[in-house]
Amino acid sequence: MSQSTAETALWLLVLLPALVGAALTLLRPQRAAVTASLVTAGVTAALALFVSVTGPQVGVPFMAGSHLALGVDPLSALVVPTIAVVTLLVLLFSAGEIQRSRARFHGLMLLFAAGALLTATAQTLPALLLAWEVMGATSFALVGFWWHEQRRVRAGTTAFLVTRAADLGLYLAGGAALAGGGGLALTDLSAADDAWRHVLAGGVLVAALGKAAQLPFSFWLSRAMEGPSPVSALLHSAAMVAMGGYLLLRTEPLLASTGWAGPAAAWVGASTALLLGAVALAQQDLKQLLAASTSAQLGFVVMGAGLGTVGGGAAHLVAHASTKALLFLAAGAWLNALGTKHLTGLRGVARRWPLVGWASTLGVLSLAGVAPLALWATKDAVLAAALARSPWLFAVGMAAAALSAAYSGRILLAVWGRVPAQDRTRVKEHLDEEQPGTGHIGLLERLPMLALALGAVTLGLLALPPVGDTFARALGEEPAHPGMAEMAGSAGIALLMLALVWWRPPPRPRLARHWLGLETAARTTVVVPTLALARALARFDDRVLDRGVGAMAVGAISVARQVAAVDDHRVDGLVEGLAARVRRLGQVARRPQSGQLHHYYVQAVAVLVVGVLLLLTVR
Amino acid sequence: MLSLIIFLPLLGAVALVVIPRLDGAAARWLWVVVAAADLALVTGLWLAYEPPGAGRLAFEERARWIPGVDSSYHVGVDGLSLPLMAMTAVIFLACAVFALRDQDRPRTRAALFLFLQSVSLGLFAAADLILFFLFFDLSIVGMYFVIAGWGHGDRGRSAMKFFLYTFLGSLSLLAGFIGLYVAAEPHTFDMVELAEQTPLDGSPTAGGLVLAAILLGLAVKTPTVPFHTWLPPAHTDAPAVGSAVLAGVLLKMGTYGFVRIAMPMLPEAWRAWAWVVLVVGIVSVVYGALVALAQTDLKRMIAYTSVNHMGYVVLAVGAAGILTEGTAQARSVAVTGAVTQMVSHGLITAALFLLVGVFWERAGTYDLGSYGGLAGPAPRLATLFALGAFASLGLPGLSGFIAEFQVFAGSIAVAPVTAIALVGLLLTAALFLRALQRLFSGPTDGASRGFGDLRPAELWSVAPLLALSLLIGVLPRPLLGVVEPAADLVVQLVGR
Asked: Contacts of residue B295 in chain A, CB cutoff 8 Å?
């Protein structure tokens, strides 16, 4: 296979879904939409597998002396197929579930996936930022997809604004990279000058934490649940949120080179895993629970990046993608069938649709960290690195892992639990509360779940020898294995927590139920003051600045009036007065001209007398 | 060739006035044809263009005009002016197409806009200060008649305010030009010679005063805070095509003056006062965005975003005057971003103002609260408006990003304090998303009921503008390839 074929394939990997997605969104061909979308997603998945084997690098000149460069290295060779395959499966599911505005939906989803694929292959900062924000914008359109309800669009706005606030870090990083002299290529970032390198790492870290819904940005993910379930399935697993974690894995050398950014990432990740785990445990709404769990699980990925175990972090990212996509699809299928996502309303739903029930159970057990499922192995790979660094970090991580088992237990309890006779009406009340349920889960919805369940079971291999060792070596890392005792211990804790939750319902603290009050805090400390300032400045603009200009115009007119008055009364008065005096002089001079001779003689005599007198006195 | 491009629209205008018994439809189509022909000529110019090198212009033409003060009819293009001329031709064609359905005195209006087009193209091609000033003032006169004649609301007052304010600014500009003329030895108004001579280097007081006069004139036209208050009423009461030209083309005359006149001719004074320019830029960015956020009138909101967007340009040219070791590349990136922003803002804002004109035409109000759920009855409007809004908030993949990323990357590298202005990116995102939310989502209500979607003339005037923005956003090289050498030169000239 020639090099140019692989390069073309890499361009197509991004361009194909982008172009087809744009065409579907703009032209809206309702009939052909689903077929076009599925064929595109299928071809894209094939291209993804192909480029992950061949590993091409391509680029064209872009701006600020850098290229729009794409490339596939061992890290993206794992993530790119994950994105493409999850996209294909989610779109397959959507073909069954989404019945209205299909062209717009599939078009936006393909654009979203194209953004994620470009993020995963981007080699320079401008290319990354391009993909990064296109993902953000399409997520706005997808979360607010059912625009008839304004709260959904508002949720999209929240998602976009929060992530964009964090994205400003990447703009800052662009300036720092240019000033630091290292260039805008992602691999060169750690070569920047000392002071600028810290700015760079800070900018990248903030941007990644925002997208990955880590503390303190996590709340946007709760709001993003307003979007259709397939959107959540993709957004939480392989695109957007996952890409936040991915960026930190990709820039791990930069984080490590600063000395502080790595530990900072590790601690933020660990705290998010713990606190958002508690949030997940307190939720009554299945989608909210899963959303909080996404933040928490991405916490392990961020932790992995901070600790320098790129292999472990990446394995967790991929295993989580499969698991979480599966669970969101199941939640979506149940929501569609029963019209509810409330845990009480979903009581016993696994018995009603056993295939979906069993598939999702595998996913939930993987999420709980039950051996030998995927997330058990990948999470332990990260925790092993934590133990090597700091026992405290390890302890926080273990507690977070225990929490994930606990909230997983709540899902299991809900979907498998039998409904006691006295609770029947309470369960019934929740049915059809969100939308009228169809009472039906079709084949198109079920098939993708089976494929994803397979991933949730097997992808742990990426963190276990021998596959995990090969992967780590490809990334240039020394393979590290968690001790048998730790792995057995974590599996034991998971089972223990599951049993505990089955036995007694866990506490649901108020703060955790409301996502730690993060959104309220952001609203009161940022949004409200900003809006107040904006209104104050607008008033200032109208009443002071503009009126000042108006006053100057009025002032000019009044000065003009005064000058006109001066002109009328003084200047013209002077002229008029002079004229009047001259006139009077004329009148005086006219009086002697009487026309009578004797008057003239008298005047002549008088003049002569005066003349003689004058002559005499002057002499 | 260049003179033909400049005066072809004027010939069209004359034809419109003198041909007897020309009916409205013929006048409208004649406008479209002349604008399209002019765009074709500009495209040809672009294809034949080669960077002329330092101290020279491409397609130069020179004729005796007022030899007594060494002022000549001198025109030419380089990487700064060519993109703006192309943008001008595109926007005027879009306006001609948009106005195809409008019955309001089409013949006079077409003539007036063709006159404005000649004036605008002439300004960007001018290489003589008197010629520049002539076109600068004629643009004000033309736009006065557009607002006063075809506007709505309190149009007379708004037009008068616009005229007086910007005319006053232009007088300050003239004072500055005369200062340059007097200081030059031999006295001249020729821009190429003045850039070579830099007559006021070595006299900081005189240089500072002349720069202050020129900056004041340009700041009013751009406009920057605090000289911007003529802009919102002028836009609110102007017709859609008038707003598109005002925001798209006329504002650029101010920012173009920075890179064409102030920086190359007064490098020493520019370096001395660069901090002031930079701070005015930052203030314009943040203040413009915040005030825009508080607006409830759609058109006023977009008018204020122009203050914000022009702030990025001012900030970048300010940063380009701050000479620190080893930042030549960063300064060049900032200036490239500034010029790209001028083109990008022209395309995007013209598109947005044309779309806003559709709101007025259908429902007679710009009030954001009067609409809701418009995505139902007007899906095409919703799609294009959303695209325009995302372009304006600097979404990657569209031209605003190419401009703003370079502005920020370059400026932050030179002067880290400019990072404050990053908040502008967030604020514009907030205000546009809020507007989208209010206009298009929720139940179809109020003025949205019975709202007709875009008609072909409206679609085919706005869509090409946004398509160009998309093209620049994805494939910026054809534009940047032209701008970058010129930006390098400006940075060199300032660094002398």
From this structure: 538
State the Cα–Cα distance between residues A601 and A604, nearest whole angstrom. Answer: 5
Q: Which residue from A minimizes the CA distance to B384?
A: A26
Q: Name the residue of chain A whose CA is nearest to B287's CA.
A: A537
pLDDT, position B328: 87
Residues of A in contact with B226 (CB under 8 A): 545
Q: What is the pLDDT of residues B427-438, one digit of tens each?
A: 999 999 999 999
CB count within 10 Å of CB A536 equals 13
Among partner residues B413, B433, B442, which is closest to A150 by beta-carbon distance? Answer: B442
**What 3-state class would DSSP assign to A452?**
helix
Is the minimum CB–CB distance between A230 and chain B shorter than 8 Å?
Answer: no
Q: Which residue has the tokens 């798209």?
A: B248
A–B interface: beta-carbon pairs under 8 A: 156
Those residues whose C-beta lies under 8 Å from the C-beta of residue B134, and which sit 6 or more positions away, are none
DSSP assignment of A82-127 equals HHHHHHHHHHHHHHHH--SSHHHHHHHHHHHHHHHHHHHHB-BHHH
Q: What is the span of the domain harbouring residue B486?
A: 2-494
Which residues of chain B lie closer than 8 angstroms to A168, CB-CB?
422-423, 425-426
Q: Does residue B325 register a pLDDT over 90?
A: no
Question: Distance (Å) from the C-alpha of residue B305 to the closest C-alpha of chain A?
Answer: 13
The C-alpha atoms of residue A465 and residue A483 are separated, in whole angstroms, by: 13
Determine the distance in angstroms separating the CA of B148 from the nearest CA of chain A, rounded to an integer.
19
The DSSP code for A568 is I
**pTM as predicted:** 0.92
What pLDDT does B9 receive? Answer: 96
A-chain CB neighbours of B154 within 8 Å are none
B480 vs A: CB within 8 A? yes
Give the separation between CA A223 and CA A151, rounded to whole angstroms. 9
Write the pLDDT tens digit of every residue in B249-287: 999 999 999 999 999 999 999 999 999 999 999 999 999
Interfacial B residues in 33-92 facing A (CB < 8 Å): none
Interface contact flag, B405 A61, Cβ < 8 Å: no
pLDDT, average across residues B25-43: 95
- pLDDT tens digit string along A503-551? 888 888 888 888 998 999 999 999 999 999 999 999 999 898 888 888 8
Asked if A129 and B405 come within 8 Å (Cβ–Cβ), the reply is yes
Contact status of B419 with chain A (Cβ, < 8 Å) = yes
Q: Is A63 helix (H, G, I), strand (E, B) or coil?
A: coil
Residue B406: list chain A partners with CB under 8 A: 63-64
The strand pair at B58-66 and B71-77 is best described as antiparallel
- Tens of pLDDT, residue by residue over B70-89, are 999 999 999 999 999 999 99
Could you count the other beta carbons within 10 Å of the beta carbon of residue B467?
A: 13
| Tens digits of residue pLDDT in A483-504 | 888 888 888 998 999 899 888 8
ipTM: 0.92
Look at A130 and B397 and tell me if their CB atoms are within 8 Å: yes
In 3-state terms, what secondary structure has residue A414? helix
DSSP string for B112-159: HHHHHHHHHHHHHHB-BHHHHHHHHHHHHHHHHHHHHHH--SSHHHHH
Say whether residue A127 is in contact with chain B using an 8 A CB cutoff: no
Number of compact structural domains in chain B: 1
pLDDT at position B318 over 60? yes
Q: Which residue has the higher pLDDT, A30 or B60?
A: B60
Cβ distance of B405 and A149 shorter than 8 Å: no
Q: Is A505 on the interface with B (CB under 8 A)?
A: no
pLDDT tier at A1, thresholds 50, 70, 90: low
Q: Cα(A214)–Cα(A352) distance, rounded to whole angstroms? A: 36
Min mean pLDDT across A48-57, A104-113, A379-388, A432-441 is at A432-441
